[in-house]
Amino acid sequence: MDTVLEFDVVVVGAGNTGLLAALGLSRSGLRTALCGKLTTKEDVTSKSRTAALLAPTVSFLRDMQVWDGLSDRATAIQGIRIVDSMGHWPKAPEILFSANELDLDALGWNIANADIDICLSNHLLREDKCRILAGAYLNSIEAYDDHLLLNLADGQKVRTGLVVGADGRNSVCREASGVAVFDSRLDQAAITCVFEHSRDHRHISTEFHRQAGPFTTVPLDGYRSSLVWVEDIEFASDFAEKPNSDATIKLHIEEQTQGMLGKVKSIAGLQVYPLAYLKTSKLGGNRIALVGEAGHVFPPIGAQGLNLGFRDVAALIECVQTACNTGLAFGSTDMLAQYNKARKSDVDTRSAGVRLLNGMLTSSYWPGHMARGAALHAFNHIPGLKRQIMRMGMGGS
Predict the structure, then answer these.
(1) pTM
(2) Can you give the residue ranges of every domain in the chain?
(3) Is the bond leading into 90 cis (omega within 30 degrees of zero)?
């Protein structure tokens, strides 16, 4: 008979959210397994995706005692500027959300996703309670009354009472959880890269609101910024075949940034990926808790995605610790109901907000543009309202 590995909890997916979940759960004293491929140092240079970690997320990472390993690789975001590039009249006012309005040193920090992965992986490798099943991909999950049996692609079988699905938008765990899924592909794609420019970004992230979607620059070290550029999918697909040195890409970026960052000197790590919406009826079922993009997917607007996923992880760790203290079974219906209650309102609110803003940008419906402009006018002239919107954007209520 084949040997069956047994753990209190198994985390499926070795991206940012999966690594953080495995770290937090193992430090809670649970025998934890992590299934997935770990990021390597080569990925740091070959990939351009960065994450803007908002201040509350950084506080959580400090509590997890991992921020010290990330801070020297992160660049402070001291302000977020919104510029109306819709081409409509009347033009909405430019607005700057500054960290000092909330008495903060920074609204967030920008850092390469791969750097986060490597830091968390290094912490996990030192945890006695965590076993990393590196490269072990999930084939299927068999559900029983009191446990789950995971069948891995390398032939291993794993038994556990709780699975954390951190396996992204094409999640096998989500399918096994039995939750209802509402998803749709968009006619948009994101172009991402890192670029060097001639003018100082002054630690300001700028989001240009455009008909095709937002065009967002986020500061990195020196005279560099990361870019998330949302475009029509056909337009974006053309860029997927272009080399980083292509002069037309530099000209497009210079035009879209309206000279704020000067000349584009070089581009690295150009990538294109399609955008989609996905939400679930609840964030778990059948002894499976969903975190990150396994439970929610939406366009990259307002730095919500990864920050939302890390809040999922924080809530799940708290629910599991409560279960430990009260004798509630891991993965039980009651425990998953507590987790869903803790997270669903936040997830639904952020998802709806991003969908509304993206729809207002891409729609030709002029009252929507007037409403967006009126809101920006109000934020500029009512400081209390502006501060409240800033707190909400950072994960508050």
Answers:
(1) 0.91
(2) 2-49+112-181+277-357, 62-110+185-274+363-392
(3) yes
Joined tokens for residue 147: 């446990």
CB 22 within 8 A of CB 291: no
The burial of 328, by beta-carbon neighbours within 10 Å (0-12 exposed, 13-18 middle, 19 or more buried), is given as middle
Concatenated DSSP letters for 254-314?
HHHTTTTT--EEEEEEEEEEEEEEEEESSSEETTEEE-GGGTEE--S-TT-HHHHHHHHHH
Mean pLDDT value across residues 350-377: 63
171/300: higher pLDDT: 171
SS3 1: coil
Residue type present at position 375:
A
- The full DSSP string for 31-74 is -EEEEEPPP-HHHHHH---EEEEEHHHHHHHHHTT-GGGTGGG-
344: left (phi over 0), alpha (psi -120 to 50) or beta: alpha
Residue 220 in 3-state DSSP? coil
Report how far apart, in Å, the C-alpha atoms of 151 and of each of 14, 62, 137, 246 are: 17, 35, 9, 45
166 with 12: CB under 8 angstroms?
yes
What is d(CA 181, CA 395) in angstroms, rounded to the nearest whole number?
A: 24
As given in the structure block, the two tokens for residue 66 are 């991992």
* The token pair that represents 305 in the structure block: 């995605």
Superfamily of 2-49+112-181+277-357 according to CATH? FAD/NAD(P)-binding domain (3.50.50.60)
C-alpha 178: how far from chain center: 24
* Record: fold of 62-110+185-274+363-392: D-Amino Acid Oxidase; Chain A, domain 2 (3.30.9)
Q: What one-letter code names the amino acid at 199?
A: R
Q: Is the C-alpha dihedral spanning 65, 66, 72, 77 positive or negative? A: negative
pLDDT in tens, 121-154: 999 999 999 999 987 889 999 999 899 999 999 8
287, 143 contact by CB (below 8 A): yes
**Ordered strands of the 50-54 beta sheet:** 50-54, 108-112, 75-77
Q: What is the pLDDT of residues 63-107, one digit of tens each?
A: 999 999 999 999 999 999 989 887 666 666 788 888 898 888 999
**What is the tens place of the pLDDT at every residue in 230-246?**
999 988 888 777 777 77
